[in-house]
Amino acid sequence: MREKIIYGLGTLAAILLVMNLHRMFLGLPDEADQGAIYRIMFFHVPAAFSFGICAFLALFASIAFLITKNFAFDAFAVSTTEVCLVFGAVNLITGMIWARIIWGIWWAWDPRLTSMLISWLMYAGYLMLRQAIDEPTQRARSSAVLSIFTFPGVIITYKAIDWWRTQHPGAVLKFRTGQQRMDPAMEATLWWNVLAVGLVAAVLVLIRMRQENMQRELDGLRREAHAL
Amino acid sequence: MDVRNFTYMFYGFAAAWVIVVLYALLLTSRENKLRREMDRLRRMIEDREVRK
Fold first, then answer.
1. A210 and B CB contact within 8 Å
2. C or N terminus of chain B, fewer CB within 10 Å?
3. pTM of the model
4. How far is A173 from chain B (nearest CA, A)?
């Protein structure tokens, strides 16, 4: 069943991505001030959404693990955190490439960028922590606590453009500003790509969770082999 | 069209896809390793049970 869901979501994501790329390059004109490079936004913003959603799911799974001690939640937390890091990296690197042209610099230590980098590094620390602890219960408990303490960084990143004057552009999407600040066709394409990238993230999380289950099965086999 | 602007747009798209594809390859290689290890252990357990 899970295999069918993975293939189904993967196919849907591929179709959406092809449609969106067609719309980005052949349907939409260059932006008046930025030229062609504004199209990076169509991956930069969806990657940020996937990062945020995965981080939220990891928070939920970490709290659920601490309450229930069910290792399925730990498997879900590590899977979403790993995918969260991948899309965080996409967000940071595409943003840097865009900034090189628009700002003339690769990086600025402004609150939005800095809080995003700190959150990313904290989630990377989460994966390193897991590598460092062998005992499964202690590993799951410690990493759940770290995940919970890391999540406020994601909220700070999200709200940074409202709380401080940042080099990073302010909010432009309608759901945050209440007004149509971006061309509706561009915003619609952006949302379609949020969905497509989100589906890719969901497929990666499902595959990663399957590996966590395999790892648990493997640990069982190791114990069985050791006992014989 | 500004060539530099277009080139950096290409770098941005390429970077996004390279990161996702590298992660997908990492997942594939990790899964193959897990499957090989499981097969090895299953064979080892079967052998030991036969010898008993």
1. yes
2. C
3. 0.93
4. 21
Q: Are A74 and A61 in contact (CB under 8 A)?
A: yes
**A175 domain-assigned:** no
Interface confidence, given as ipTM, is 0.91
Residue A5 lies in a domain: no
Tell me, yes or no, if B43 comes closer than 8 A to chain A by beta carbon. no
Write the pLDDT tens digit of every residue in A146-179. 999 999 999 999 999 999 999 999 888 888 888 8
Instruction: Report yes or no on A12 lying in a domain.
Output: no
- Show Cβ contacts of residue A116 under 8 Å, excluding neighbours closer than 6 positions: A88, A91, A92, A157
Interchain CB distance below 8 Å, A208 and B44 = no
CA dihedral of A18, A24, A25, A30, whole degrees rounded to 10: -170
Interchain contact, B8 vs A101, CB within 8 Å: yes
- pLDDT tens sequence across A16-62: 999 999 999 999 998 888 989 999 999 999 999 999 999 999 999 99
Question: At a CB cut-off of 8 Å and minimum separation 6, what does A225 contact?
Answer: B41, B44, B45, B48
Residue A21 lies in a domain: no
Does B39 contact A at CB distance below 8 Å? no
